[in-house]
Amino acid sequence: MAVSVPEYTYHPLPGIRPSHNAADVKSPLKLSKSLLKDPDALMNFAAYRVDAALQCEKVNTTRPDLPSLAGFVKLMTIRTKLSLPTIMVTLIYVERLHKSLPPSARGDFETPYKIFLAAVLAASKFLDDRPIENCKMASLCDGYFTLYEINEMERCFLSILNYHLYVDSEDLRGFLNEHRCQLKAGLYLEGW
Predict the structure, then answer these.
(1) Does residue 108 form part of some domain?
(2) How far is CA 15 from CA 98, 167, 168, in A?
(3) HSE-CB of 80 using CA atoms within 13 angstroms
(4) 54, 112 in Cβ contact below 8 A?
(5) What whole-number distance in Å separates Cα of residue 158 and Cα of residue 11?
(6) If we measure between CA atoms, which residue out of 95, 40, 92 comes closest to residue 70?
(7) b/e per residue, 70-92, with b = 16+ CB within 10 A?
(8) Is residue 63 a contact partner of residue 144, using CB atoms and an 8 Å limit?
(9) What is the DSSP letter of 13?
(10) Is 13 a member of any domain?
């Protein structure tokens, strides 16, 4: 199944002066729809990074209705119309969560799903003028998670990150350099 990524014009990254426009942004990645070679590869990479953030149960005994994590990431990316910058900031937040957790931390089967949703909500609220609201996210989840669960996962996620949400172009550049090989499969990256 091919995933179509919503149209994306230009969204300035934090740390980029607002006077720049899409044509002259000197960030490591001009974030636009035209840079997507393979949206499925990008969504699979996102699912992989979320799954790798925490060691979790691999057997689904509590929520048999949940799709695969990769399928869920694709579904929610399409339904929420995530922009490429929001996806990238989401992944940076997931990386920060991973680094904040003790090595002995463990999660349930549905924990990666919750991590993804909480990271998307935080990234949307950090970047967007009209962010995704928790009640909207609950309605887009097809009943997989309730509004109460979404509120709780967001609170826990932010607490573990110690509310460290600021992302600038250096954070983005570092993330892109660290995951260069995996991201090249799904993105056209200038100068690589």
Answers:
(1) yes
(2) 24, 8, 5
(3) 34
(4) yes
(5) 23
(6) 40
(7) bebbbbbbbebebbbbbbbbbbb
(8) yes
(9) P
(10) no
| Number of residues that this document lists for the chain | 192
Structure tokens at 2: 């091919």
Contact 145/158 with Cβ under 8 angstroms?
no
More confident residue, 119 or 184: 119
Range of the structural domain that residue 175 is part of? 39-57+65-184
Q: Which residues face 55 on adjacent strands? A: 106
pLDDT digits (tens, 9 = 90+) for 60-76: 778 788 888 888 888 88
Please tell me which residue, 133 or 61, carries the higher pLDDT value: 133
- What is the rounded average pLDDT of the residues 31-45? 62
Query: Has residue 155 got a pLDDT over 90?
Result: yes
Q: Is residue 23 part of a domain?
A: no
Tokens of 135: 């009640």
In this prediction, residue 183 carries a pLDDT of 67
CATH number at residue 99: 1.10.472.10
- As a whole number of angstroms, the distance between CA 55 and CA 191 comes to 35
- Rounded to two decimals, what is the model's pTM? 0.76
